[in-house]
Specification:
Helix content: 25-40%
Distance between the termini: 61 Å
Low-confidence stretches: 64-180, 743-747, 831-838
Radius of gyration: 33 Å
Largest sheet: 9 strands, mixed
Strand content: 15-25%
Structural class: alpha+beta
Mean pLDDT: 81
């Protein structure tokens, strides 16, 4: 009987991958819409035969009787063929019946096939020495393996997709500096060969193409345009997997998770477990490390001129270099790092997770820090790693870099020596307590910054630990006391620890790192994913329907309608979603709601007393997330946060004074020590975490695959900046969409170093109204644009904002708020330049003035003695036109309309 309703092999492979990821039969069945018995049979077949391919069926094979055509061909061959060949191919027609058909055992056939494969693998690896690891073949594929696989592939494919040796490939010089990058893929094309190759690499990386799919894609491209792309798959792989050969594989004991290093030896020094390096690699008892020295050398060579170029203002707190602790420890000729070690679960229902150590260089400006995140360690597996083992390579390398430093050359060839220390660690409260080796926040003395004991109160059917504001204050922790408490716990063997300290932290061994002040109460976790969702759920949860702060269902509908009507600027990547979908919101969405949307849409919805209380939090966050903040503003924000936390028990109940609320009282110390909250938040690393999860595709060698994809991604981004700098807008837009980066802009559109236009311009003459605003009588043609970027801030005209539903047209200038109507580039000759005839280009924005409305939002707080809603400005439109240059721009603004009134506020500093 023929096979019917056969499950495609791709779906069967997906079933096995989901099973290896820890998912059960029912969940796999529901996700892929397969019967659970089918899922069970696929998995059992994979366990037995180690394959999901269709195997030969048991039973009697189908009779294959020769047809008339085949008989005629045989007879014709017998008459036409030579006698020698005829004798060798003679067919016994009397014995060609069914009695000659022999039944074959499929299990025996599979055993023979597996035996042949094992013999082939043994033969292939017999010449390798014991020093070569199987995992290294995943990171750095060898020529022998690729050649063998390609030879198998060419037996089934045409000769166009064969894997030629790189020596014979004329495209070897494609990334050579001396290579002619202007060569087109064919005559008359606007796409160069180098650009096409870069786009191809980005496509392969984005969609994680398999080897077979990549070879077929190369064959297809060469079929359409012969010779447009290298046919060598090995050449593509070498550029796609450009991982430094010094990537290290660090092993750990499978029984006690003791750190074993690169060479494990024959026995674990802790549990005396017998060890085999081959077995450890096969069972994935390892994690990967990319040494910081190699990455820092590449980054500093490109960006050494930008070190220390932070935007500063006297007596104002801004970036990390303005913090008190940073200034106290600052050393000439050294750089400092901010690192994170947060985990990222693959799926909500999966036991597998990814634990990276990511670093940024504090001496780089904030925009460059966001673009240059370094990946040092990558651990993948079930549960979580032993932190002592996990941090050992990181600590060992920083010991060397802090004492000896490392040498590197700048662009001019000058050799420099730089020392490196880690100063700031960013993570959530759960990971922070584990790394500090403190009690979790649900236990007594669970705060890692102070000695607040907390208290247990009833909440619902259980109990929760709350942290209300103490009238007499609370003592802060210090590193010296923490080390003494840890030693006391170890010496006396206290099982519960002392004052929240359970023992020594592995980061006590990190040079120049403060185990208390080095950690920060990250606002992404404690505010955006903590306090804000907690209070929004209190307002909308039907469980609190009888409370004064609860909002009725109609209010929820009104809020959803108001959110959907908002047109956010490009700094807010996610468009507003309904509050009814808040369970799926990300941290950036909660941040946008709290800082920008809620002050306007909650103004007439939330009861007045609770709205004033909410504005205490929002006003302080606007200060901490501004570009600059004075000491007076920092003190004002501190008072607002203390009031906010102290009023929670009386307004909402003591059971809602959570640990996240308590962390708000420590934000001020963080800002004074290490700069404003945006300077060292987890939002900088959030994009990298998302990329690491997207790069996961299989459980076998998952960490190697993720590591390879991550390094290849960064390499392609760097190459794209050079290769596509003069490419057309269509090519750069496609590359940006495939790599999720917007760093490419045509250099010809630069007005000056920090100002450039986007898109194609059009020639026109200035109107009378514009000439009046410009106070000029020059009627020469100007070039009009719809978009420009000033100091990494995108500004667009009103018409362009309406068409794309993104409002980037409201800015604050030295003379007030304006709405951009048109943008032109004026070329003029200055008096001192007329002798040389050098033209001067200047960007001018013609804007409509937005005047302050007669009634402004006012919430006067007596304790702070100021209007805490002063960041929110009511505006009204006017017809007065003014000319604005880049020197007049102060900040970009968020604007929204509510009940016929226009409100604007200065944009906080978000990650780029």
């Amino acid at each position: 009987m023929p096979r019917r309703n056969e499950i495609p092999e791709g779906i069967r492979s997906k079933v096995v991958d989901m099973h290896n990821a820890g998912m059960g039969y029912k969940l796999i069945s529901k996700s892929l819409e397969l019967h659970h018995s089918t899922v069970r049979k696929i998995i059992h077949k994979w366990i037995r035969f180690n394959t999901v391919a269709t195997l030969p069926r048991s039973g009697r094979p189908t009779k294959k009787l020769p047809s008339r055509t085949q008989t005629a061909q045989l007879e014709e061959a017998d008459h036409a063929g030579p006698a020698s060949n005829k004798g060798g191919d003679e067919v016994d027609h009397q014995s060609a019946g069914p009695t000659r058909l022999i039944k074959e055992d499929p299990d025996k056939k599979m055993r023979e096939l597996n035996s042949e494969c094992e013999d082939a693998d043994t033969a292939d690896h017999s010449s390798d020495s014991d020093e070569e690891d199987p995992t290294l073949k995943v990171l750095f594929p060898t020529t022998t393996k690729d050649t063998r696989e390609d030879a198998d592939h060419t037996r089934h494919k045409n000769s166009a997709s064969c894997d030629d040796t790189p020596e014979d490939d004329p495209m070897e010089q494609i990334f050579d500096p001396n290579f002619d990058g202007e060569k087109k893929i064919y005559a008359g094309s606007s796409v160069s060969v180098r650009s096409l190759l870069l786009l191809l690499l980005a496509f392969i990386l984005k969609h994680d193409l398999s080897k077979a799919a990549t070879k077929d894609l190369l064959a297809l491209l060469n079929l359409v345009v012969p010779g447009c792309i290298p046919s060598s798959l090995q050449f593509i792989k070498r550029h796609l997997t450009d991982i430094d050969k010094k990537t290290e594989i660090h092993l750990y004991c499978p029984r006690c998770e003791n750190y074993l290093g690169v060479e494990p030896g024959t026995e674990c020094g802790v549990c005396q477990q017998r060890l085999s390096k081959k077995s450890l690699l096969e069972k994935a008892n390892y994690f990967l490390v990319m040494p910081l020295e190699n990455q820092l050398r590449k980054v500093l060579k490109r960006l050494h001129s930008k070190l220390g170029n932070h935007l500063t203002r006297d007596d104002y707190i801004s970036d990390v270099n303005t913090g008190g602790e940073y200034k106290h420890e600052e050393q000439e000729g050294s750089i400092t790092l901010t690192f994170t070690c947060d985990s990222s679960p693959l799926l909500n229902s999966s036991k597998f997770s990814v634990w990276p150590i990511l670093c940024t260089i504090n001496e780089l400006p904030y925009v460059e820090r966001c673009k240059n995140v370094l990946l040092h360690t990558l651990w993948f597996g079930k549960g979580k790693p032993l932190l002592q083992c996990f941090f050992t390579p990181f600590i060992n390398e920083l010991h060397k870099l802090s004492h000896e430093g490392f040498t590197w050359e700048d662009e001019s060839g000058l050799e420099l020596n730089t020392r490196v220390t880690a100063k700031i660690c960013v993570c959530d409260s759960v990971v922070r307590s584990a790394v500090q080796n403190f009690q979790p926040f649900s236990s007594e003395f669970g705060c890692g910054f102070c000695y607040h004991k907390g208290e247990l109160v009833q909440k619902g059917r259980g109990y929760t630990r709350v942290y209300p504001v103490q009238v007499d204050g609370c003592d802060l922790r210090h590193m010296a006391e923490t080390e003494q408490l840890a030693s006391l716990v170890i010496e006396n063997g206290y099982p519960q620890g002392q004052m929240g300290v359970k023992g020594h932290s592995p980061l006590l061994l990190l040079p120049s790192f403060d185990i208390v002040k080095g950690f920060i109460p990250d606002y992404m976790h404690c505010v955006c994913l903590g306090v804000v969702p907690e209070f929004v759920n209190l307002w909308l949860d039907p469980l609190y329907g009888r409370k004064r702060f609860h909002l009725p269902p109609q209010s929820l509908k009104d809020l959803d309608k108001a959110l959907c009507a908002i047109q956010p600027p490009d700094e807010i990547r996610q468009r507003p979603r309904r509050l009814s979908e808040r369970m799926h919101w990300e941290a950036s969405e909660w941040r946008a709601f709290a800082l920008l949307y809620s002050p306007v849409i909650l103004r007439k919805v939330l009861p007045k007393l609770y709205y004033k209380h909410w504005m205490l939090l929002i006003s302080s966050l606007h200060i901490f997330l501004s570009q600059f903040a004075s000491q007076e503003e920092i003190s004002c924000a501190e008072l607002c946060l203390v009031q906010f936390v102290s009023q929670v028990p009386s307004l909402y109940g003591l059971e809602h004074c959570s640990f996240n609320c308590h962390l708000l009282t420590h934000l001020t110390d963080c800002a004074r020590n290490w700069g404003l909250l945006w300077a060292n938040s987890a939002f900088v690393f959030q994009g990298v975490h998302s990329r690491l999860l997207q790069m996961y595709s299989r459980t076998q060698s998952a960490s190697s695959h993720i590591f390879k994809q991550f390094v290849s991604y960064d390499e392609i981004i760097r190459k794209g900046s050079d290769v596509l700098k003069d490419a057309s807008a269509e090519i750069t837009d496609l590359f940006s969409s495939m790599t999720s980066c917007g760093i490419l802009t045509k250099s010809s559109n630069y007005i000056r170093e920090d100002v450039f236009t986007v898109g194609c311009g059009s020639q026109r003459s200035l109107t009378v109204r514009e000439l009046t605003a410009l106070r000029s009588k020059d009627t020469r043609p100007v070039t009009e644009y719809t978009r420009f970027v000033y100091r990494d801030m995108l500004v667009t005209t009103l018409d362009y904002s309406v068409s794309c539903r993104r409002n980037n047209s409201v800015i604050e200038t030295t003379s007030g708020f304006v709405l951009v109507e048109s943008v032109v580039v004026v070329e003029k000759l200055r008096n001192w330049e007329r002798s040389t005839g050098c033209p001067c280009r200047e960007l001018v924005a013609f804007c409509r003035k937005l005047l302050p409305s007669n009634s402004q939002p006012t919430i006067h707080n007596k304790q702070v003695n100021r209007n805490i809603a002063e960041f929110l400005v009511g505006l009204r439109s006017s017809e007065e036109l003014c000319a604005v240059t880049c020197q007049d721009i102060v900040a970009k603004c968020f604007v929204m309309q509510q009940n016929g009134r226009l409100y604007a506020m200065r944009m906080p500093v978000f990650e780029t």
